[in-house]
Amino acid sequence: MCGFAGFLDASKECTRDQLASDALAMAGCLRHRGPDDEGVWVDPAAGIALGHRRLSIVDLSASGHQPMESAGGRYVVAYNGEVYNFPALRRELEGTGHRFRGHSDTEILLAAVEEWGVAPAVRRLVGMFAFALWDRRERALFLCRDRLGEKPLYYGWMGGSFLFGSELKALRAHPAWRGEVDRDALALYMRHAYIPAPYSIHREVRKLQPGTILELRGASPGTLPAPVPYWTMEEVVARGAADPFRGSEEEAAAELERLLRDAVAQQMVADVPLGAFLSGGVDSSAIVALMQAQSARPVRTFTLGFHEPGFNEAEHARAVAEHLGTEHTELYVTADEARGVIPLLPGLYDEPFADSSQIPTFLVARLARSSVTVSLSGDGGDELFGGYNRYFQGRRIWNSTRWMPGPLRASAAGLVSAVSPGSWDRIGSRLRQPQLADRARKLAGVLGAATPEAVYSHLVSSWTDPVSIVRGAQEPPTPVTDSARRPEMDDFTERMMYLDTVTYLAEDILTKVDRAAMGVALETRVPFLHHPVVEFAWRLPLEMKVRGGQGKRVLRRVLYRHVPRALIERPKVGFAVPVDRWLRGPLREWAEELLDERRLNEEGFLRPAPIRSLWRQHLRGERNAQQALWCVLMFQAWLEASRAGAPGRRSAGPPPAVCGPGAR
């Protein structure tokens, strides 16, 4: 796992020293992603500069140094990620005459491109990756991102310089940087609590969409070619529908376990200590169980505990760890320790990001990094196998209310809203349903929805009308709001699962984990996103995933072969912190300052009236508006930090050797 950055100077007037200095400054902002090594490669005649920071995972020797040239000298790559099937690719390439200096997957990637070309090579890769590849012969730059979006990649023109990198902070370090807040993207953020690709918080910068390759040649400043997909979820869905799995549920569980075992085995390959996050839920327990089944020594597992009632899963994780025999570490953190992460968030995420589970995710990543360099996680199981409550609750709500006339639905919504959040929480406590007030608020909103898509949109929206609070904004279409951007699918639940996979999973879950973990130089790997697993999941009938008010049925069958059902079956909690209570208590002063009416007016991005009204309702306990308010607060905190701070600087120490044509 690493970080990279670079640029293409269209004028080709920069000297070697200028190119190297700017590339080093950009890469230096990514030292947290790669503290072990740094490198730079430049070609003044072409105007190209590549910078790299390395976190050594496989082949710790200098043979893995980047940027790396191909054996034939045609290609140069700066690469972030892991190609898990590199041993098999190496054997295949050796059979065609390739010879290798070391044992890194980067060298295999370059040889694959030399042998098969860029797109055919990428289609053969199994892994998580983002890279910039320079073709010296054709003077063409290729940017590529993995299928599901595990690794990030930003790019855009700033004047006559085309900038790219693993994080926005690297682009900001270039002298040509002139970033302007994109109000339309800000509206998207206020709906989703993240900014979906291809947008970023800056009008001039885009995120490369998962499963695509962007090719830039004959650089014309300001002109961006459209990325070309090499793998899409739409195709996966279509192939799954055309070739459904026809076996029994037990046969499906057997095939799923085979695929997951293979994914876990590939992802346990590392030349550094490796472990896993363990919450005690279905997904993480399944991954840890399959790790332990294939390990000769106890797997290292890590759990975070909270003293806050309703937010602690550490006891459940401990029970699973004891059953599996892992080497388990748990850390209980205080509310003050958790809140201490908040000032770090704008710098970690580089753009507004408002999933409050970013706080415990950072803390558990920091805990794991104290013992290991790589950690596997259970992310992706909910989207692929139907784990979220909305998959059956949204369907149930729609089926129960679609027959009702509009005025009757509105009356029902009013009745639900009339019960105070405190009363809902007391009811939820007796029913062992935490955060019931939030669910009731969502229910009130969806009761008024006229279509299934409107139900889903309401369930996933922090602000249901974001342009009402963002000044001068028009919300761009996304697969959530525009039916033309999603495939035809008959089943409402499957439509929700598809939308979550291409939006929430890529832009929230994977972004959260990548930035939190790489902020402490921890590599995370996600076996559920092994693309053969993804493709198999979409061949399965829905009833093998969601049935009788329960999700992940086939995955549970796999898990219960290794862990007793009694250790797993309980209401889903999620990795959350009590932001609602914090905002009424210890965070109130901080929030008041960021939500000050005069401040909002002076900054000119957000309309104060609806925000202040919601803030007052939250403080009085009339609503639990934590998600909508957290969106505003994280934007305000980001804006404050971006205006006050400067891009990161390169770490102290001697500069690396500059590679490239004419280098000495």
Automatic annotation (TrEMBL):
Catalytic activity: L-aspartate + L-glutamine + ATP + H2O = L-asparagine + L-glutamate + AMP + diphosphate + H(+)
Keyword Ligase among record annotations: yes
Record-level Gene Ontology MF annotations: asparagine synthase (glutamine-hydrolyzing) activity; ATP binding
Top-level taxon of origin: Bacteria
Record site: Important for beta-aspartyl-AMP intermediate formation: D379
One GO BP: asparagine biosynthetic process
CDD domains referenced in this protein's UniProt entry, alphabetically: Asn_synthase_B_C, AsnB
InterPro entries: Asn_synth_AEB (IPR006426), Asn_synthase (IPR001962), ASN_synthetase/amidase (IPR051786), AsnB_N (IPR033738), GATase_2_dom (IPR017932), Ntn_hydrolases_N (IPR029055), Rossmann-like_a/b/a_fold (IPR014729)
Keywords annotated in UniProt: Amino-acid biosynthesis, Asparagine biosynthesis, ATP-binding, Glutamine amidotransferase, Ligase, Nucleotide-binding
Alphabetized Pfam families for the sequence: Asn_synthase, GATase_6
Pathway per the UniProt entry: Amino-acid biosynthesis; L-asparagine biosynthesis; L-asparagine from L-aspartate (L-Gln route): step 1/1
Enzyme Commission no: 6.3.5.4
Binding-site positions, L-glutamine: D105
Family: Belongs to the asparagine synthetase family.
Alphabetical list of NCBIfam families matching this protein: asn_synth_AEB
Name the UniProt record assigns to this protein: asparagine synthase (glutamine-hydrolyzing)
